[in-house]
Amino acid sequence: MIPGERICALNALPARSGEYVLYWMQSSQRTVGNLALEYAIRKANKFKIPVVACFCIDPLYPEANLRHYTFMAEGLVSAGRSLETMQIPLAIFWGVPGESIAGAAKDAAMVVTDRGYLALHQTWRNDLAGMVDCTLVMVEDNAVVPVETVSGKEEWSAGTIRKKIHRQLMRFLEPVGRTPVQYSTPSQEHGGAPYHEAHTLLTRVKEKNPGPSPLYSGGEHEALLRLEKFIIGDLSRYVSGQNDPASPVTSELSPYIHFGQVSPAYIAQRVLESRHPGADAFLEQLIIRRELSLNFVHFNPHYDRYEGLPEWAKKTLAEHADDPREYVYTEAEFEEARTHDPFWNAAQQELLVTGKMHGYMRMYWGKKILEWTENPEQAYAIALSLNNRYELDGRDPNGYAGVAWCFGKHDRAWGERPVLGKVRYMNAAGLKRKFRIEHYVERVAALAEEHGPGAS
Q: Cα 204–54–269 angle (5° rounding)?
């Protein structure tokens, strides 16, 4: 049974007599653990009609580039193949989602969609709700516990949200059975391009730089392989190794979670089934920390701006805005990894080359941008711009919350110091003390030599 808290009608229209149930796949580009798809299948079987699926690629998506679109296209091909085995066609549209999906829904009995959490995703759904002539239902399956079910307000920290999630967690981790399609359609008759042409649409992408990641290929199949490899090989070492960039023990699933190519609830179910000692520490990151970021972008209208920081952080940073900086770099110097700090440069180089940065180094990276920029507002803009441009999981609630954390969000005030005020401080000495950080620099240098610009 799909919990009722996951299901929300987005308009007041009823279902109608139609030729199919349309599933607008947008933030859940997968078939395993896709509760929106499951809901659409159940409704279609009840109405005795087929399910058809569609996806809309927005060429004007803010800050998206060829790296992001390539990963997404690989995921759409993977999802299309899986849907095909379920007798559900997937069509790809190019353009403004509201208009494209409204056209695809012309003969639909109802439209079902999944949930993205950013303001733009909400705008898309609101637009479509007013354009279709049938009911539009959203099924939330990209949070383990639905956002509004967890809390009705913006939470201060992981400490304030943790109990609220744990109170209801297991109920939302109950597996939901997969229902077979009873009424299939032999052809795609609602417009769009067939899913296997997703890659050809990439020629239309205007922002070609950065290019595709050489280490991460998109798709549900790849995500599930990485999940099983992590559970079998690294999960038991997660507690001791999760923060060590020199010898990383990570799932590498964040890009796949960002694009909805793997379900967070499914990951949690598999991790719990494993009974590995690292399960609790991993689930803290997957569920508590991630859902804190969903809470942030849902309840804070300034989640993507400096104004979204807590008042204490803005106050202390303003008080120290004119403090002398030991180093000051431009955005271009940051982007090209041209600072005095070899550890910071390695973190930026890892991001440039692979599309992903180790989580601990990502915190250090953001803290140092704050420390080495003329003022905190400029630092915030630079950190967010670089994160969103180069990270495969950029433009994501986790990314917005992660950058904000470097500036004091979801944290407390610490001892006061120049430039950072009472915002938590990190330094290179801490990296040297905790890790064999030179090995991280060497590892990134080898990656850059093998996969960076000019590599053969």
A: 110
In degrees, rounded to 5, the angle at the alpha carbon of residue 390 between the alpha carbons of residues 389 and 392 is 105
**Count of all residues that appear for the chain in the document:** 456
Q: Would you tell me how many other CB atoms lie within 10 Å of the CB of residue 102?
A: 18
Q: What is the CATH number of the domain that holds 21?
A: 3.40.50.620
List for the chain the helix, strand, coil content (%; round to 5): 50, 5, 40
Residue 247 zone, left/alpha/beta (φ > 0; ψ -120 to 50; rest): beta
Better pLDDT: 453 or 375:
375
Neighbours of 85 (CB within 10 A): 8
252 Rama sector, left if φ>0, alpha if ψ -120 to 50, beta otherwise: left
- The conformational region for residue 454 under phi > 0 = left, psi -120 to 50 = alpha, else beta, is left
Which residue matches tokens 């992001």? Answer: 68
In a domain, 382, yes or no: yes
Question: According to the model, what pLDDT value does residue 454 have?
Answer: 65
> Which residue range is the domain that position 277 belongs to?
220-299
**Ramachandran angles phi, psi of 23, nearest 5°:** -100, 115
Q: Which residues contact 229 (CB under 8 A, 6 or more apart)?
A: none
Q: What pairs with residue 22 in β-bridges?
A: 52, 111
Q: What is the DSSP letter of 275?
A: T
Q: What is the pLDDT of residues 52-102, one digit of tens each?
A: 999 999 988 999 999 999 999 999 999 999 999 999 999 999 998 988 999
Query: Token pair for residue 392?
Result: 């495969």
**Tokens matching residue 301:** 């209208």
Domain closes at, from 101, 119, 142: 142
The overall longest dimension of the chain from CA atoms, in Å, is 70
Q: Which of 266, 299, 332 is the last residue of a domain?
A: 299
Are both 313 and 243 inside the same structural domain? no
The b-or-e profile of 385-414 (16+ CB within 10 A means b, else e) is: bbbbbbbbbbbbbbbbbbbbbbbbbbbeee
Would the pTM count as exceeding 0.90? Answer: yes
Q: Are 142 and 235 in contact (CB under 8 A)?
A: no
- The tally of domains found in the chain comes to 3
With H, G, I as helix, E, B as strand and everything else as coil, classify residue 452: coil
In this structure, are 257 and 330 located in the same domain?
A: no
C-alpha dihedral, 275 to 277 to 281 to 287, nearest 10°:
0
CATH number at 358 reads 1.10.579.10
pLDDT at 186: 64
Cβ atoms of residues 441 and 343 within 8 Å: yes
Nearest to 309 by CA among 418, 402, 407: 407
